[in-house]
Amino acid sequence: MxxxxxxxxxxxxxxxxxxxxxxxxxxxxxILSCDALCVYRGMNIGTAKPDAAARSQVPHFGINLVxxxxxxSVDSYQAHALSAVREAGKRPxxxxxxxxxxxxxxxxxxxxxxxxxxxxxxxxxxxxxxEGLPGLLRELDSYxxxxxxxxxxxxxxxxxxxxxxxxxxxxxxLELRDSFARQRSPFADWVKRVCLVRRSREHLRERIERRxxxxxxxxxxxxxxxxxxxGLESNPSAANAIGYRETLDYxxxxxxxxxxxxxxxxxTRRLVRKQDSWFRHRLPVEHVYELEGDDPGDPSRLDAWxxxxxxx
Length: 312
Prior knowledge:
Blueprint: E1 4-9, H1 16-27, E2 30-33, H2 52-57, E3 60-61, H3 74-88, E4 93-97, H4 100-104, H5 118-143, H6 156-169, H7 173-181, E5 191-199, H8 201-218, H9 220-229, H10 236-239, H11 245-251, H12 257-282, E6 287-291, H13 299-306
Parallel strand pairs: 1-4, 1-5, 2-3, 2-4, 5-6
């Protein structure tokens, strides 16, 4: 299967979601969200997830796929993306998002598809609690007599992932690395037309602060309190998301209301800097759409750049 993917990327609060919705509405397209948090049901306010009204105008994929207490991997996302392509049929499909890891899955392999038994996850987690990084490295090295070149051995998360895969597969880090390098993305044969939405740092800062105020006023604290009862904190990917981890701290009395809002703004700005770096170095951008102030952008500009009239 092959075709063209229209990809609209941009940092948090850049306005890409509204621009994508308007383009898709005009062109009878469908939207595939590439946000790693929108897959969780109930994480609505803190993710600025497209609401029911938006989803009634344009079919959306990549939204509300699992409960907040469930794990969701990039492998799962890739399978869902392939399903979305099949369901879209001949309608144009617009991929939109700011999650670099999920976006990367359209350009290169991102997972080795090794299944990790729960027993191994538990054993490695217990080892990390008991002996920390030194214990993890000692165990990892027992599987790798030739070393682990290319692995960041100071990063506990990467060491844990390497150990899990070595134990589950019975293969060395070098064997796993070489096998992974030979994989192809399921979308390798697709044409990708990429546009990046960008705003000045000053305007983006204003939009971030307004976004945070809107979320708090809309009931972010109540949303997080409800998700906590559903097992939010059992899922580190969800519980540590910006907007959610600060709200958990606020609910626990670690922040005043003012400190809570400031923490969300500060960490969102930090995220935006990381996103900007990823877009500049990892995403093959064809066009940059510079927006100022509250300009929502003109969907016809996308058509002009992409040289297409989808759905016309």
